Structure formats: structure tokens, C-alpha cells
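Retry 2 of 3 after timeout on previous attempt. Resubmitting C-alpha cells to design endpoint.
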């Protein structure tokens, strides 16, 4: 590719935008001792998209070792609990604790406010179009 420019690469721009968004959300969630990555786990549990360590790893796109370490940290902060499944002892079921549930709504608002900082100047139509482009990229993968 003769006219390739890193600064104009879609992949590079997506990575930079994602990195900046993650930093903003991390700063906003610091008061809760939470990171954007941990919030992702939180949201999967909160919305019922996962309830096992393996499902969480798939949902977050990480290996099971990384998920175990993340769950160790969340459990240490008393945000989640892990229990062996009664049906299959190999399966670890994960759920939010009362503390996790009680802080989930506030943390969601903080994260949404941080996201909205990055969307300043975009019209509602542009945001919908942008989401459509992202969905199409995901489907093309």
C-alpha cells in the first residue's frame, strides 16, 4: 500500500479512541476502586449476559487465566462472589454481591457520563450512524 499513513489508519484511530475512552472511564471510576475492564465484567453479570467464569471470558474476549485474575480482584473488593455449580462441579458460577448491586447503578451513570464526554459535538444521528459502522465492522470480523 503506497499511500498508507498510520495517522489515518482505521485500526490505529480505533485503538487510540478506545484507549482514551478507557482512561477517561478509569479516572471516573477510581472513586469506586473499579476499572473500565472490571466494569465490563460487572455489566455482563448485571444484565444477565453471563453467569460463569467461562462465559465472562468469552464475553470480554480474554483467556480464562486473565478472567480468573480479574475475578480475584473483584472478589477481593467484595463486588462479586464465585461458587461451584451444584450441577457441574467444574463450572464456577459468578454473581454480584449486595455491594456490587448497590453500586452498579451509580457506576453505570459515571461511565455513561465519561462516554458522553467523548461524544460531545456529535448529533444523535451521527451517534447512531457511528454505532452502525461499528456494528458492521464487528459483523464483518
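Retry 2 succeeded. Sequence:
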Amino acid at each position: 500500500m503506497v499511500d498508507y499513513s498510520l495517522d489515518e489508519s482505521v485500526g490505529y484511530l480505533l485503538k487510540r479512541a478506545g484507549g482514551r475512552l478507557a482512561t477517561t472511564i478509569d479516572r471516573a471510576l477510581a472513586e469506586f476502586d473499579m476499572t473500565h475492564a472490571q466494569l465490563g465484567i460487572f455489566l455482563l453479570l448485571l444484565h444477565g449476559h453471563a453467569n460463569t467464569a467461562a462465559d465472562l471470558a468469552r464475553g470480554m474476549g480474554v483467556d480464562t487465566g486473565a478472567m480468573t485474575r480479574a475475578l480475584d480482584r473483584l472478589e477481593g473488593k467484595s463486588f462479586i462472589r464465585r461458587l461451584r455449580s451444584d450441577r457441574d462441579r467444574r463450572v464456577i458460577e459468578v454473581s454480584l454481591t449486595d455491594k456490587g448491586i448497590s453500586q452498579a447503578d451509580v457506576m453505570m451513570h459515571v461511565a455513561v457520563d465519561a462516554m458522553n464526554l467523548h461524544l460531545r459535538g456529535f448529533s444523535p444521528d451521527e451517534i447512531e450512524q457511528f454505532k452502525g459502522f461499528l456494528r458492521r465492522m464487528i459483523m464483518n470480523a
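Attempt log closed. The mean pLDDT is 92.
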